[in-house]
Amino acid sequence: MEAAEGQRGRDGGSQRRSPFDVIMSQIRRKRSASDRKPLGRFLSRTSERTAIPEDAESENRGQSPGAAAPVESLRDAGWGRVCVFLQKMGKKADSSSLSLAHCDLTATDLLELASLLQFLPQLEEMDVSWNELIGGSLTALTSHLQHVGGIRTLKLCSCRLNADDVAALGEALPSLPGLEILDLSWNSSVGGALQSLLGKLQPSVRELHLVACELTAADAAALGGLVAVLPKLCVLDVSCNPRLTQEVDAGGFGQLAASLSHAVSLTVLRLQACGLRPDNLEALGASLRCLPSVRHLDLSCNRSLTGGLSRLSSHLPHMAHLESLDLHLCRLKRADLEVLIQVLPSLTALTALDVSSNKEAGGAVHQLVSVLPLTQMRRLPMSSCRLTEESFTALALVAPYLRSLDVSWCKVVGGRLPLLMDALQPSVVLELRLSSCGLTTDDLGHLADVCRRGCVSSLRVLDLSYNDSVGDAGWAALFAAGGLGSLEEADLSLRPLTSAPCSAWLPSLLGALPRMPALVRLAMQRWSAGPQEEQQLRFSMKNRNIRLDWDPDGSDWKTSSQEDSQAEE
After folding, report:
1. Which of 271, 283, 345, 378 could serve as 403's disulfide partner, Cβ 3.0–4.6 Å?
2. CA quadruple 191, 192, 196, 202: dihedral, nearest 10
3. What's the predicted TM-score (pTM) here?
4. Distance CA 319, CA 296 (A)
5. What value does the mean pLDDT of the chain take?
6. For the segment 140-152, what is each residue's pLDDT rounded down to a tens digit?
7. CA distances (Å), 161 to each of 31, 149, 169, 313, 553, in order?
8. Domain spans of the chain?
């Protein structure tokens, strides 16, 4: 949510400028010559003699008027220009996929890219996301999309697109008859301008992502009219658009909810943080009961749903293929959980249920476990749920089947971890999240025994952050045990405003690295080490190309009280 707010703030400050102003201002903001070598556009006089021709005219220069360059030669020259451009951006050339996300593209880069599309007739995927400097100049690209009519995936996330960009994209969409995935997320100015684009979408569209676009009730109404004419639409994500439901008089969300009943191919519906209220659930449920194909339903972070889940529960039994239901951070009350428990037996395909960050959920674990299809459950996160001793014991019944086990921010876990670890089945759990659980040295010693027996040999993510009460012997035992050959990410960070030396167990960690070949990220914020130890650790991480998140001072981290308040929410 903080990310959504931050993005809206950045996007909201943009003003409409003329194309000339956009290009000139972005040339001034261009990275220095040392960062981006002028390989393509600013060739030296010496390199001009051997440069790849810029176009067919230069290719034919010096030939007789009647002579034409061979088609094959022109094609090779064009591909060479593509390779040079991508090399400048630090990317490898691929004739079917063009990924330029996070490349600091400017309007001039976009012009150059557009001129190269004619040499990519086999292009199927284009991603220019997270390039905020191209906002206001998308026409330079869209006017050449007819050269890549075979594109199936187009991503333009967080590019500061304005209304003119959206309109230009809409005009170009008919030239992409095979487009299947369109992602315009994190562009706040899309809201209010979406209607100029929706009518141009082709029936081939399968996924539409509009996260944090400041969509209005009018946009919701337009979306409602669209879903009925997109027979292949299977993924619709309009998360982080609270205005969809705030403008009550416009009735936009009601129209969208009613129209969803016609989206017969819909399998994924995400409405996270859309400001949903109980009355919205009733309108939504009436359509969902007509869509047995829906497999993933995300209603999380809608805090106004408190006390209103009964409006949806009567419709859930009709969703025969529902596999994942996300209700985290919805401020569910005991009454909400009770109606959910009543309908869960009818959801026979359910494999993931998320009621985390709902304080009352901690007291309902025993009832939840008693009605869930335990042997097929893969995710049941219970972080920040105020687990009790009884509910923690009940959770151990489902632990053997879970791929992801998350009981973070539950202090009852400390001193009782063996109960959960002994329930694990070998090579089943992939994620183990135990952040801020009050773990003890004995808890980590028992986890080390579990690792040694090979019970977590498939573990990829291990989060043990904010467990400051663990002693050096516990950390040393964990890394000396082995059995973490599949581990990709590990977080051992201490709480903010704290610090402790890692000298006693650092040799065990360094000695364990050869037995963790899959490790790509290690976080150990606020652990301190001597200069020689720090140098050795950083060298080992760099040698293995492992990302090390390590700030011994922790000066850029929030205070402990801020972390605790967020966990409570």
Report:
1. 378
2. 40
3. 0.83
4. 10
5. 86
6. 999 999 999 999 9
7. 21, 22, 10, 39, 39
8. 414-552
